[in-house]
Design brief:
Elements lengths: L7 E5 L3 H13 L4 E5 L3 H14 L8 E4 L10 E4 L15 H17 L5 E4 L4 H12 L6 E3 L3 H15 L6 E2 L2 E2 L7 E2 L5 E2 L2 E2 H7 L3 H23 L4 H15 L4 E10 L5 E12 L2 E5 L6 H21 L4
Helix pairs in contact: 1-2, 1-8, 3-4, 5-7, 5-8
Length: 317
Amino acid sequence: MKETVGNKIVLIGAGDVGVAYAYALVNQGTCDHLAIIDIDEKKLEGNVMDLNHGVVWAQSRTRVTKGTYEDCADAAIVVICAGAAQKPGESRLQLVDKNVHIMESIVGQVMKSGFDGIFLVASNPVDILTYAVWKISGLDWHRVIGSGTILDSARFRYMLGELYEVSPSSIHAYIIGEHGDTELPVLSSTTIAGVSMRKMLEKDPELEGRLEKIFEDTRDAAYHIIDAKGSTSYGIGMGLAKITRAILQNQDVALPVSALLHGEYGEDDIYIGTPAIINRGGIRRVVELEITDHEMERFRHSADTLREIQDKIFPAS
């Protein structure tokens, strides 16, 4: 598998998500050079100045610049946060037509620069758009990653931590499937401070109902946040920064991202949220969780929902 060289990141799209991601990168000292591309050049200039003024307090120096597509030529990662924003009450899948056309323009310009690194896609609907970026770019699937369910899983872990009064870092739990309304929690492989959730469910039959309510709050959190403040940004920005660190630092860590399936869960030729091992080459491999028959049924419904949309865009796939 190809391994990227250098430590330069190009961010395309400096809206709320893009700026939150940029702030996380600079604050954590993740990369040496962050070049940002956005159509609103005046606002971009202000954000670049503002980020650079905070570098002095960061863990290490990051050079933040206004970028052009020529910057992609020597970038290790191109991160796409551009696209039409999700409106209140609008599902992520309703964004698909507008944003696929935007991806065609962006990816075409990136590849024209001679880019040969890794794409990280955060624009919604992320699973469909990551598939589109893979198709348009012609890159190996290992090097095209979507943010997938990294935010959903983080939300779920946070809420479980609140319930059990345990740090989320001591909770291992995944949300898989579409980053959207048909996603599902994998309770069968969840552990709370090392204790199996499966065992907890056997001891307390009423627990499943409480956990389902927590999952519903997780799934619907974006709608509440968008209604309250217009967009989600901080959680996904930090999630993208985590994926970026996993790549640049060659961590071989399992993260719930949108990855291309090759028979896992009985599915093929579809990008969908699942744990995958992330390192300097991108996706090392997809992790297929052992899930129950009921969870498999929900996962296949999620995959079918995505495939219905995907087949309309790429009917020959």
